[in-house]
Amino acid sequence: MNCPICGKEMEVGYIQSARRVFFTTKKKHVFFVVGKKDIILTDDNFTCPTGPAYNCSYCKKIVIDYKNNENYM
Ligand SMILES: [Zn+2]
């Protein structure tokens, strides 16, 4: 994948966390429950949450492709 900002080839890797990672437009403060409009970016908490990602070390940007993630809402 090429960087959408500078056009250079991006490094293929993964985002990982101890907990499921999701994108939300409404910041959670206490309970991190995935809402209907939230987008899940990794698999669940019991399988070493991991999702594919691309890094542009020049722009310092990470691109996460969730189109093949069947868990997104
Ligand atoms: Zn770039």
What would you note in describing this structure?
The protein has 73 residues and is mainly β. The chain has one domain. Helix content is 0%, strand content 29%. The protein has no helices and five strands. It has a three-stranded antiparallel β-sheet, with no helix packed on it. A hairpin with a 4-residue loop joins strand 4 and strand 5. The radius of gyration is 13 Å and the shape is globular. The chain binds zinc ion (ZN). The site of zinc ion (ZN) has 8 residues, from loops.
Global outline:
globular
Count of helical segments?
A: 0
Helix-strand topology string:
EEEEE
Number of DSSP strand runs: 5
In round numbers, the mean pLDDT is 89
User: Main beta sheet, described?
Assistant: 3 strands, antiparallel
Number of domain units: 1
Low-pLDDT segments, ≥5 res = none
Structural class: mainly beta
- Cα-atom radius of gyration: 13 Å
User: Biggest sheet, strands in spatial order?
Assistant: 1-4-5
Task: Explain briefly what this protein structure is.
With 73 residues, the chain is mostly beta strands.
List the helices and strands and how they pair.
Blueprint: E1 11-16, E2 22-23, E3 39-40, E4 50-56, E5 61-64
Antiparallel strand pairs: 1-4, 2-3, 4-5
Features:
73 residues, mainly beta, 3-stranded antiparallel sheet, two-stranded antiparallel ribbon, binds zinc ion
